[in-house]
């Protein structure tokens, strides 16, 4: 390979994202070298840029940003048999240890040895060349785009959330928040056979996208209303028919409270959103006395292939979500768009291959 250009977006600290050249890495045993194609910007990437940390994950050393990526295999490390040079792949960004009890039972998202792209101290993949474990790369069928490959990352969160919530044929589902995660959850719930999907958000624009993607009813939350008012207003919009499953894709005190109070007795509240930055007060008596199960969601495990199938089969179309495009050279502008929301972005996509 003659290319020496490995332009990379590196986060040095709060509001300090730099483009720099890095050596092209060599794939080790069971790894592949990828020419990165598309990288979507996630809220967590923006959070690291603006705050330098998420919870106890703190950027202490320069860290390559980005984790929603697709690429093309350019070199195989020793022992790789599942991929060939030229394959287009989606990259599952978390590589677990494959040895611990969680890995062995298939809940590898809970692996304490997880190495997840752009979660400190591990580098991400907003770069031109990147090495990844071959068993966490998923070959894309030729009719799937590299953009769809990158979108498998957020889609897998939606798939995991719907599985955790027990969404199935005929379910009624309430989704709280219509950001990228709420919208991929909507698409997944629909594909899994949910009959009625209600979705809330603060912004009209995102709710319009939800409507186009097949929401049964979109419900606008007014920022000024109290938690109690918001809950009562949504109850009225639901026509008092409480959903079997509520999936909180924003994660604030108000939405978690709403999730408890507005889920049908015996139903499930799944919490994906991490909006609340501190402890919240919840009506737990309401949950226990009506047997509403509260379940957490942490990323995904064994969901990438299902997400791929949803797109490959045409059951899910995420193209309405990708609203903005930039090159890796324009990383700063891309992050600015994602952070400020100017121009109503949903998913901002960065193109990393200068020849593509
Ligand atoms: P986002 O910020 O783009 O979307 C959140 C949406 O919620 C916004 O559109 C916002 O207008 C809306 N919202 C805010 N307050 C609301 C309220 N009171 N009622 C209804 N809607 C409200 O974020 P995203 O990328 O869609 O991600 C959603 C959440 O999921 C984030 O908190 C993110 O950190 C989290 N997340 C969790 C996991 C996980 O593994 N658990 C994975 C990915 C993302
Ligand atoms: Zn493990």
From TrEMBL:
Statement: the UniProt record of this protein carries the keyword Iron: no
Keywords: Metal-binding, NAD, Oxidoreductase, Zinc
PANTHER family cross-referenced by the UniProt entry: SORBITOL DEHYDROGENASE (PTHR43161)
Species of origin: Essigella californica
Required cofactor(s): Zn(2+)
UniProt record similarity statement: Belongs to the zinc-containing alcohol dehydrogenase family.
Oxidoreductase in keyword set: yes
InterPro entries: ADH-like_C, ADH-like_N, ADH_Zn_CS, ER, GroES-like_sf, NAD(P)-bd_dom_sf, SDH-like
Any one GO molecular-function label of the UniProt entry: zinc ion binding
Protein's GO biological process: sorbitol catabolic process
Highest rank taxon of the organism: Eukaryota
Annotated protein name in UniProt: Sorbitol dehydrogenase
Domain Enoyl reductase (ER): 13-350
């Amino acid at each position: 390979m003659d290319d020496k250009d490995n332009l990379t977006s590196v986060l040095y600290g709060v509001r300090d994202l730099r483009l720099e050249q890095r050596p092209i890495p060599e794939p080790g045993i069971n790894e592949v070298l990828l020419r990165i194609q598309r990288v979507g910007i996630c809220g967590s990437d923006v959070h690291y840029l603006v705050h330098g940390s998420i919870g106890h994950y703190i950027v202490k050393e320069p860290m390559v940003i980005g984790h929603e990526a697709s690429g093309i295999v350019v070199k195989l490390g020793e022992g790789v048999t599942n991929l060939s040079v030229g394959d287009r792949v989606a990259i599952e960004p978390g590589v677990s240890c494959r040895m611990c009890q969680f890995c062995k039972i298939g809940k590898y998202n809970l692996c304490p040895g997880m190495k997840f792209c752009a979660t400190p101290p591990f580098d991400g993949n907003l770069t031109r060349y990147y090495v990844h474990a071959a068993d966490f790369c998923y070959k894309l069928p030729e009719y799937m785009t590299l953009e769809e490959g990158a979108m498998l990352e957020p889609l897998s969160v939606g798939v995991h959330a719907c599985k955790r919530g027990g969404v199935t044929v005929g379910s009624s589902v309430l989704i709280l928040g219509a950001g990228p995660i709420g919208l991929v959850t909507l698409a997944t719930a629909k594909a899994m056979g949910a009959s009625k999907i209600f979705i809330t958000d603060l912004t009209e624009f995102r709710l319009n996208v939800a409507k186009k993607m097949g929401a049964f009813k979109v419900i606008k939350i007014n920022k000024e209303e109290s938690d109690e008012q918001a809950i009562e207003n949504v109850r009225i919009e639901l026509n008092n028919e409480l959903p079997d499953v509520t999936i909180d894709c924003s994660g604030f005190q108000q939405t978690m409270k709403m999730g408890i109070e507005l889920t049908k007795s015996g139903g499930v509240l799944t919490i994906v959103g991490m909006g609340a930055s501190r402890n919240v007060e919840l009506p737990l008596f309401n949950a226990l006395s009506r047997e509403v199960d509260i379940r957490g969601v942490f990323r995904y495990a064994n969901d990438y292939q299902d997400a791929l199938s949803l797109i490959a089969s045409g059951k899910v179309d995420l193209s309405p979500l990708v609203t903005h495009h930039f090159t890796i050279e324009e990383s700063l502008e891309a992050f600015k768009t994602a952070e400020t929301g100017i121009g109503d972005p949903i998913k901002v996509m960065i193109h990393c291959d200068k020849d593509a």
